[in-house]
Amino acid sequence: MTLLQHRRIGDIPRRGSSVPAEALAAAAAIVEDVRQRGEPALREHAERFGEMGPREPLIVERPALDSALARLDAGDRARLERVAERIRRFAEAQRRAITDITVAVPGGRAGHRVTPVERAGCYAPGGRYPLFSSVLMTAITARTAGVPDVWVASPKPGPLVLAAAAVAGADALLAVGGAQAIAALAFGAGPVRACDVIVGPGNHYVTAAKQLVAGVAGTDVPAGPSELLVFADASADPALVAADLLAQAEHDPAALPLLVALDAALPPAVDRELERQLADLPTAGVARAALANGGVIVVATLEEGIAACDTIAPEHLQLHLADAHAVAPRLSQYGSLFIGAAAGEVLGDYGAGPNHVLPTGGTARWTGGLSVLAFLRFQTWLEIRDPEAARALADDAAWCGRAEGLEGHARAIERRFTG
User: Which residue in the list 45, 204, 316, 356 is annotated as catalytic?
Assistant: First the structure.
């Protein structure tokens, strides 16, 4: 039996950002409880899910984060700081690309200012795999955007998670996860201050809670189980294609590893490599389950392959193509693109620079990955310095008001320009 089942594009489910009804219902009860009762509810749910004991602190303050960093092995600390610096440099370049503007209008000027939110909550999963890399991706991006108060939330944080929060510049860490953490970040709970924006990947309950608090706080891209689509031709190394698929498959039994192959001889070779590499992979059980979700789509032409990739709109799109650089500009629907076999998707996971918090379930058709934009506001302004020069502007505004049946609007502007 082959691991990569042959599929058609229509067989690939468009999962969107939806969560199971039972997860949404469970999260709703927790979110409402934390909203109403605050810190006592937050602690009760954290203890109920085994995240902490009765007397353990909810919050890890900044001095304790710094201590965790200081206790790291020197080599581990150096690597952590190098990865953080690459993420920071990329985010800084993004921030420099976003500027204030001023535009002339009749009699004055208008524009926008780009300003950060006051407080950000950055979630990092702590279940099957505690993802300290997600602490770096979220908190560094928030701090680089200029957010003055940055909180991390992660259940049962280990030394690397605590150290990553310190390197990222977090002010404090909430040692709680799940829907209860998202609710605390949204509404505030005891020492936890309410956040303006909440970002970061998580399980169904985290995603459901983010949906429930949207509007109370801003939320980031819809993040579901990890996805990788490898687009490959006859030049591809089957062993490398298999390794890339397994790297994403081991994330979660619900992950989606896919291959779009331009060469019919490639899938059997990749399948043999998958079996070979699974033999000693510690996460083989999870990876096998995920491989059953995915499969292979064999296409006859490059154009058909491009169309398949754009239709699926995967979170990660890896190109194992002889002319990957020429094909890359022709692809338009993906969360993040990895051009050529050397640019392994795992480099994106672990701090080459671009953010690894990316849209899943086909939502890359309308949104992109986490960036400094998630923490920035475009605040517009208008100033009239010469009322006489602005008369045409006022006349048009008064006409619009009356045309919409809003006489008060028309009179309010005319009062400024009579006499």
Answer: 316
